[in-house]
Amino acid sequence: MRAPRPVALAGLAVGLAALAAYPLVGTGYGVRAMLQLFMWVALAGSWNLISGLTGYVSFGHVAFFGIGAYATAILITRAAWPWLAAALAGGGVAMLLAVVIGYPCLRLKGPYFAIAMLGLNEVLRVLVSYFEGLTGGGLGLSLPTLHATLPIYYVMGATAAAVTLLTYLVITSRFGLRLMTIREDEVAAEAMGIDTFRHKLYALLLSAVGPGVVGGLAARDQGYIEPISVFPLATTITMIVMVLFGGKGTVWGPVLGAAVLFVFQEAVWARFIYLHQLLFGGIIVAVVLLMPRGVLGLLQVKYRLPRTI
Amino acid sequence: MNAVVLTPAMVGQVIISGILAGALYAMVALGLALIFGVMRVINVAHGPLLMLGAYGTYFLWQATGVNPYYTLPVTMAALFLVGVLLQRTLVFRVVDAPELSSLLLTFGISIALVNLAQLAFTSDLRAVEFLTASFRVGPFALSKSRLVAFLVAAVITAGAFLFLQRSRLGKAIRATSQSREVALVCGIDVPRIHLLTFGLASALAAAGGTLIAVIVAIQPDMGQVWTFKSFLVIVLGGAGNYPGALVGGLLLGLVEQLASLFLTTQLSEAVAYVLLVLVLLVRPTGLLGGRQT
Lengths: 309, 293
Prior knowledge:
By secondary structure, chain A is an all-alpha fold. Chain A has helices at about 5-25, 30-55, 60-80, 85-105, 110-130, 130-135, 150-170, 175-185, 185-190, 195-220, 225-230, 235-245, 255-265, 275-290, 295-305; strands at about 140, 225. The mean pLDDT of chain A is about 90. Chain B has helices spanning about 10-40, 45-65, 70-90, 100-120, 145-165, 170-180, 180-185, 190-215, 225-235, 240-260, 265-270, 270-280; strands at about 135, 140-145. Chain B starts with 7 loop residues before the first helix and ends in an 11-residue tail after the last helix.
């Protein structure tokens, strides 16, 4: 493994400093937009950890986001927890859910996990609506008013950075190599003595915590959640599109994909809601068929960039 | 949940309703099982194809006022063509690719289909108002539309099995699903079998859509849950085991109906899911056993 070059590190530091200083100069709209972008970076990066690295596609990753949002909202409204602690607990609850789902579904190869995840958010939505006493049912939960956009901006940014750093650490570690071995050939991985089930489960745990925390932060930020607002299939679709477009299995691919698609989404597509989903479907098909490695993957091959970018 | 006193009549009703629903599940799931068996592809767009069939019936019924069941051959033929087209243009490219590619590709197709439907038909609920009454036989109530759906699904499923067992093409399909290489060596045109399989599977989904459209109101995102339930059915029966789809379908129908006795309708939706997780924990190869994937 080659150590990152000082130039790259310096560039990264400048970029992070600029993002940290941005609220001083940015407009209210600009700060909110960046907060959203951070959220997408964290979500896309988390999807990449399980699906990009192990090849196990999660079609319901928004479930972790949603359960994090509900856990946080419940802790804030019913137990008066401070929002930061509640959001972190949301990440913990999401990991718990990952164990419950991962344990049966990751023992098998093949699409079991993918389809189980497809059904998962439907079920969670039903359960959340059912346990009205705790969750407010279909009426949703209102959080006490709090003006904390700026602290949430920084915590959301830190979460996005943490997920990206985590991805870098995983990809450059032996653990990450084993995950990629599973993706390329699971039978071979097993034959080499890799406990594939264990590794897949760990990857799923790592990929659940980010969405859980981010879901909690988003719940706090919006001040109101209901079942349909925190378990939308569209969020999973957006995560997947961002990672595929940027380059799955890379460190910066999800960041790149999130940035590009988020800007387009805000600037153009938000006005054509169905058309934009249709386009997302089209992008998935096109990327799978035409550039399965994504933009960054193409650049890696063309310019011989390191694998760890 | 209230304590429920089970009377024999209630149990009978559950069994009848379960079997009625089960045949429909089995027919739709057989489509998914065929594609999976032959190509090792899980077609995430299976449910959205069913949704297209449902809309086909709705619009034909609305435009012509014809008995909605007469639209069955039309929707099946139309979706057969759609399926062949999808296979010919997109899916054939990922048949030999890693699972990730085929799952993502059919997921992309599924999103595109659902949103095309939302653009074209809007998200309004639409209902085919036909055969809304029910028979009373002794203590049991039989919804007419569900009864017809059962009969039609049973006939189509039986036809499909007969086709797979007896006809040359059906044998070619089974041979390809057992071993593509050997099938190729025996002179079977494998890409053509793939086209046929995808077409047949889509036609089965379309038949499901037509029958469902008469039973419940339809909307563009009705399909996803059918992808999930069809998958559950083939997991129950054992993936790659075609008769397993029958057993799995009936079982799912019965369990769902039984659950609706004890749980609210909303909550009984979640039962299918719990069933999936339980089966994967206890008997991952399915109840009848199947090929390891």
